[in-house]
Amino acid sequence: MVSRMFRMETGVDRQRRDLLRFRLRETNTAASPVLRALRGTPDERESPLHVWILDDADRLAGGLVGHTWATWLHVTYLWVDDRHRGAGLGSTLLAQAERMARRERGCAAVRLETWDFQAPRFYQKQGYEVVCVIPDYPPGITEYTLTKRLS
């Protein structure tokens, strides 16, 4: 019987993180024909998608930050300044990002996460469906994952 000795370390190590990411990507690609088919295509890498709305003084009134990957748009942040809430800017930002993702990048769907005190009902009004609910993430807050198919 072969005895192996291991040492465990903790702490941030960017070089090891990058190596881990590379090895995980290689393992996943080997295991999944879908991920293997993405290799070498434009959909293989995340591409940033940002939409901004500025007021008449060129101040940020709202914005959406996300990325596209593998025919999906992932909305990371959507924010509208309190002074402009209720004016439809959130819907406008989301619709523009969806249009860009669909027309320019061939996306078929969108996903996003939001907390219970943020905007789950807003997204549902925009045609999004709740696909995951995580209570107490963080404690006392519920996180929702929502998706929408783009037509």
Outline the structure in words.
This protein is α+β, with helices and mostly antiparallel strands. It has helices at about 15-30, 35-40, 90-105, 120-125, and strands at about 45-55, 60-70, 70-80, 110-115, 130-135, 145-150. Strands 1-2-3-4-6-5 form a six-stranded mixed β-sheet. The mean pLDDT is about 95.
How big is the Rg? 20 Å
Order of helices and strands: HHEEEHEHEE
Instruction: Give the fraction of residues assigned to helices.
Output: 25-40%
Uncertain residue segments? none
Shape: globular
Largest sheet strand order: 1-2-3-4-6-5
How widely separated are the two ends? 59 Å
Mean pLDDT: 95
Q: Can you tag this structure with a few keywords?
A:
151 residues, single chain, globular
Quick structural overview:
The protein has four helices and six strands; from the N terminus they run ααβββαβαββ. The chain has 151 residues and is α+β, with helices and mostly antiparallel strands. The longest helix has 18 residues.
